[in-house]
């Protein structure tokens, strides 16, 4: 009998227990440092790992507040979590107020026009986003002042559940933008009607308690990305990706490997071809620069990444040279993390995760109750 995992070119294992443990660690850290609560950011299908599994796992860990980017992501999450608070970061789009009400989604109001539109559509709870220096989303300073001067009338029945802002450089603790944004955000909060404040995402949590406000909003760290690049990663790895070897061949000095013949042999060796390519999100920028792990040994990806295939130099050490078709190499895991892969592809862990392909056979482990065989509590 052959199952889906046998037929797949690669198996992506997603550890929901690690996601839950990462969330609890950040929750406890924020609570101890500042008393802030902890939400979870699950936009982009929970950073590519699957909202249908990750959402309920985080709720089971105790998370009550979730952030998504798109309205449709919020609608999907509402179907999974009837009682959660769900906020939509990209905000209130024209003509969508009814959907926000029907699905009980909190709009993140990103400009004065959205404040007015939400008030005129019947108002209710919302989040207000202030731009504190990133110039991406949120009310600029002059709109904050206009709103403060016209409050409470201009807010009408709009209940500010949270006032939030976002840090541009939180992964660089020494960057002067951090304190500047913290102070700009505090100044905006002082003139607005009182509301709980939210500033820090994953990296911002580690900047210290005066960056926490009342609610922190981690995303990437929940999924194993190091919130402190260059320092020891305290987060547990969540994904493990294993690719299958399709063929192994001996090659000679002078032989070329892959499209463009960009890898030329300077001595004889062995090449293993693995069933993962850029159509699976294994970025083309891994060409001649990525790695895989076999039996504890890091082996180089040689030649270009093809749509469905990569080629690995398995010439040495000796255990690698014995690989056979059907064996698996590890493309992501504890020995070669999402951040390690990102560094070799010239990108960030966020992009590695959100690029993970749809052709992988996905296997979820570590569900709450799974170890005991007790199944789901609810
Ligand atoms: C994506 C996002 C987050 C989460 O950021 P991470 O760096 O993944 O923790 C938090 N807040 C806003 C506004 C975001 O866009």
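^ structure tokens above, recovered residues below v
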């Amino acid at each position: 009998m052959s199952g889906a995992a046998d037929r797949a070119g690669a198996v992506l294992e997603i550890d929901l227990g690690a996601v839950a443990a990462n969330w609890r660690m950040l929750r406890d850290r924020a609570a101890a440092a500042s008393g802030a609560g902890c939400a979870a950011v699950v936009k982009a299908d929970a950073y590519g790992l699957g909202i249908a599994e990750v959402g309920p796992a985080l709720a089971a860990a105790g998370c009550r507040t979730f952030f998504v980017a798109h309205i449709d992501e919020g609608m999907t999450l509402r179907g999974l979590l009837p009682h959660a608070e769900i906020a939509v970061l990209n905000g209130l789009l024209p003509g969508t107020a009814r959907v926000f009400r029907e699905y009980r989604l909190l709009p993140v109001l990103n400009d004065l026009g959205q404040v007015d539109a939400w008030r005129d559509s019947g108002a209710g709870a919302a989040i207000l986003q202030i731009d504190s220096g990133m110039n991406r989303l949120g009310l600029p300073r002059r709109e904050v002042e206009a709103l403060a001067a016209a409050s409470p009338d201009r807010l009408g029945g709009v209940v500010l559940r949270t006032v939030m802002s976002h840090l541009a450089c939180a992964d660089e603790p020494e960057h002067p933008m951090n304190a500047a944004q913290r102070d700009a955000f505090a100044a905006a909060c002082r003139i607005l009607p009182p509301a709980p404040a939210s500033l820090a995402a994953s990296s911002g949590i580690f900047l210290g308690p005066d960056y926490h406000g009342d609610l922190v909003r981690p995303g990437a760290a929940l999924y194993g990305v190091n919130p402190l690049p260059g320092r020891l990663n305290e987060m547990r790895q969540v994904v493990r990706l294993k690719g299958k070897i399709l063929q192994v061949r001996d090659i000679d000095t002078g032989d070329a490997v892959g499209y463009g013949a960009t890898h030329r042999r300077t001595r004889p060796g062995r090449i293993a071809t693995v069933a993962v390519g850029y159509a699976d999100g294994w970025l083309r920028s891994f060409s001649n620069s990525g790695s895989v792990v076999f039996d504890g040994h890091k082996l180089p990806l040689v030649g270009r990444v093809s749509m469905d295939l990569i080629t690995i130099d398995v010439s040495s050490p000796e255990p690698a040279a014995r690989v056979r078709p059907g064996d698996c190499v590890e493309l992501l895991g504890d020995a070669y993390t999402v951040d390690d892969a990102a560094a070799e592809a010239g990108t960030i862990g966020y992009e590695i995760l959100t690029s993970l392909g749809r052709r992988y056979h996905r296997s979820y482990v570590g569900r709450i109750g799974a170890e005991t065989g007790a199944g789901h509590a609810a």
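The mean pLDDT is 95.
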